[in-house]
Design brief:
Blueprint (H helix, E strand, L loop, with lengths): L16 E3 L10 E6 L10 H14 L7 E5 L3 H13 L2 E7 L4 H9 L3 E5 L2 H13 L4 E2 L7 H17 L6 E5 L4 H13 L4 E7 L27 E5 L1 H15 L5 H14 L6 E6 L16
Parallel strand pairs: 2-10, 3-4, 3-6, 4-5, 7-8, 7-10, 8-9
Antiparallel strand pairs: 1-2
Length: 296
């Protein structure tokens, strides 16, 4: 008799969908959050990281032992570092120097090599320049269809199944936009009436993981038609709700997740009899050194 045991890669996905108990709007609404921090490397990015590497292998674009390069602000880099370790690739990550110490340490722990630069636009430009010089293969989460495809095949179906097909609103922060693109495509196929709400930072807000991209750097995987409404989120509001999630719900997460729930709480004041799902994209422990949990 041969016993089958899962590998760490098999543990990506199928994360819990849980109901908020103390934060909320009108009592007729059901507010749900999907705990993507429960993935092995701690974020929603585990899904596209494994997808981008595995599918590139299947196409013959890369093979174990090759060098992979990616520009990242944090979560994708950690996930790619894990996926590269699983599959036997050298991983070079280019990231803004102001990323938290925990993120840098996690990437290094998985064996990735880090290059620190001034900002994400610089990181993306350098990754492509290194590829042009033959130093490795850029996966390019911003233009790689395997990114949203991972969410179309896994995150979207999970949310539909876990909400028993009752979901009315889906709320997600937008960085590379892979999550919202893939989930939107799946949910709209099941029920075109589901409202897809995207989150971007207000001008001047610094919320890790979400961006207002200059036109020249807008991810090419992004299709504006797949998002019904975009909400601008302030940094203070996102951080306040992030702390409330930990203290009132026992959900320990990062700022972009706080922003997604803050947007959901706004929407919950506008509607009745809704079933809303927001993405909790990572865990709060990778932000502790920034001091954001020290505030009252």
């Amino acid at each position: 008799m041969t016993l089958h045991f899962p590998t760490i890669a098999d543990c990506i996905g199928n994360t819990p969908l849980v109901r908020l108990q103390r934060l909320g709007g009108h009592p007729s609404n059901t507010l749900l959050v999907k705990l993507e921090g429960n993935n092995p490397a701690g974020s929603v990015k585990d899904r596209p990281a494994l997808s981008m590497i595995s599918r590139a292998e299947l196409r013959g674009d890369i093979r174990p032992g090759d060098t992979l390069i990616e520009a990242t602000s944090g979560n994708t880099g950690i996930a790619l570092a894990m996926a590269a370790a699983i599959k036997g690739y050298r991983m070079i990550l280019i990231m803004p120097s102001n990323s938290t110490a925990e993120r840098k340490a996690a990437m290094s722990a998985y064996g990735a090599e880090l290059i620190l630069v001034d900002g994400m636009e610089t990181a993306r430009d350098l990754a492509l320049a290194m590829q042009a010089e033959g130093k490795g293969k850029v996966l390019d989460q911003f233009a790689n269809g395997d990114n949203p495809e991972a969410h179309y095949l896994t995150t979207g179906p999970e949310i539909w199944r876990q909400s028993h097909g009752e979901i009315t609103h889906f709320i997600s922060s937008m960085g590379t936009t892979g999550t919202i693109m893939g989930v939107s495509r799946f949910l709209k196929e099941q029920n075109p009436a589901v409202q897809i709400i995207g989150l971007q930072p207000q001008e001047g807000a610094a919320i890790p993981g979400i961006r207002r991209w200059p036109e020249a750097y807008l991810p090419s995987i992004f299709e504006a038609s797949r998002v019904d409404r975009v909400i601008d989120m302030g940094q203070a509001e996102a951080e306040q709700v992030m702390r409330r999630l930990a203290r009132e719900e026992g959900i320990f997460c990062g700022v972009s997740s706080g922003g997604a729930v803050a947007a959901m709480l706004r929407l919950a004041q506008e509607v009745r009899d809704a079933v809303m799902v927001a993405i909790i994209c990572d865990r709060g422990d990778r932000y502790l050194s920034s001091g954001i949990y020290d505030a009252p």
